[in-house]
Amino acid sequence: MSKFDAKLRLEREEPFAKRRRLGLTKCNLCSSDNAVTHSHDSRFWFGDGDIVFRVQDSLFKVHRSRLRCSTVLWDMFELPQPPQVDNIDGCPLVVMAGDTAKDWSTVFRWMYDPAGFATQAGVFDVLAGTLRIATKYDMPALRESAIQGLQFRWPSSPALMTHNAFSNAAEAISLARECDVPSIRPAAFYALSIQRWSHDAEGGSALLRLSPDDARHLICGQQLLNSFHLQIVINPLVSETENGRTCDHCASYVAEYWRRKFTPDVSSPHSCWMVKVLADMILNNCDLSDLGVQICTPCQSYHRALVYERLTVLVKEIPVIFR
Ligand SMILES: [Zn+2]
């Protein structure tokens, strides 16, 4: 059984992060006699660890060798250490100011138990916490892993966006700015721009997390998209690039089809998700058979060209609008 397996067994036997109020008594786990309140994360308190991290009021005794993944920390350990350093349980103490114990606990899990970390990797708070730590302490592999998790929810192409993009979209925009991950911003902005706040249990309070500059971006982008949507509804068969047109027989049927597809569903938690409507049309092979009338072949071709033209414009313009 590995040391980590033994720790996991310990975790099942004892409550996680067992809080020990020391007062002036010694802590029987780390022998600290500091008159402070602290807790040990039992998953990351290794008997043969050689460095102790203090993050908020949590202590972690881990192996220095695991910290090679961080150039900032590793470089720090390479520097000559002052003769008088605080130590706990015979190990030097490093105090991580400005971080949260929860985030570091997740990072240690990634270091010691990548498979366990992967099971949590879809949770926004986990991704955000690890990205902040990975960016601050220059951990390229962890940063890449967190970015991949975020890109799964907010892909660089709006055509790949799914319902997963709606929750935490505002937080993702702020996180992307804070940690310099511009690739997730367009999809997060797009999701936010079509979200209906009257359907949201928080009533749009997530918007308050946006910086004034991002709020301005959101409103400007929303107006441009509304204008694009309005053009389709008013003139469904007018193309920006195609020279052809629909014949007199088919025009009203095809126009009606487009208007129906682009009429927002009032019961939906989002307004017209134009990219999805167009992508679904393509998935359905731009089929017009549900109109109940025969559409001539040239008009079917023109309709197909309109679908591809509009999707191409949106996929190209949304990152420009919101970046
Ligand atoms: Zn026709």
What is the arithmetic mean of pLDDT?
A: 84
Q: Report helical residue fraction.
A: 40-55%
Q: What name is given to the CATH topology of the largest domain? A: Potassium Channel Kv1.1, Chain A
CATH class of the largest domain: Alpha Beta
Give the tally of structural domains. 3
Structure summary, number of beta strands: 6
Largest sheet: 6 strands, mixed
Biggest sheet, strands in spatial order? 1-2-4-3-6-5
Shape: elongated
Give the bound compounds.
Answer: zinc ion
What is the N-to-C order of secondary-structure elements (H for helix, E for strand)?
A: HEEEEHEEHHHHHHHHHH
Q: Using only CA atoms, what is the Rg?
A: 27 Å
Describe the structure.
With 323 residues, the protein is α/β, with parallel strands linked by helices. The protein has three domains: 3-113, Potassium Channel Kv1.1, Chain A (2-Layer Sandwich), CATH 3.30.710; 125-217, no CATH class; 219-322, no CATH class. Helices cover 49% and strands 9% of the residues. It contains twelve helices and six strands. Strands 1-2-4-3-6-5 form a six-stranded mixed β-sheet. The protein is elongated, with a radius of gyration of 27 Å. The structure holds zinc ion.
